[in-house]
Write a structure and sequence with these properties.
Elements (H helix, E strand, L loop, with lengths): L1 H13 L20 H15 L5 H6 L3 H6 L3
Helix pairs in contact: 1-2
Length: 72
């Protein structure tokens, strides 16, 4: 569930098709996200899930799957 939500949010923030966002896609290298995009994704996920994502952990997340793990 969290992985699907991250895929949807990443696609929205990056303006790409959600089907192009694989669980093991590298956020920066494969999807083209920069640090501002990651912060936008985090803000959207925090709002949807009513939680706070640690910013240091966020910047260490390399893949969609790793970002989804921060939502637990």
């Amino acid at each position: 569930m969290e992985t699907e939500m991250v895929r949807q949010v990443a696609a929205k923030v990056l303006g790409i098709d959600p089907r192009a966002v694989a669980d093991d896609a590298l956020l920066t290298e494969h999807l083209g996200a920069d640090s501002l995009d990651l912060l936008k994704m985090a803000a959207e996920l925090e709002e949807q899930m009513q939680l706070v994502i640690d910013r240091k952990a966020l910047l260490k997340a390399n893949t969609v799957r790793e970002l989804a793990r921060l939502l637990h």
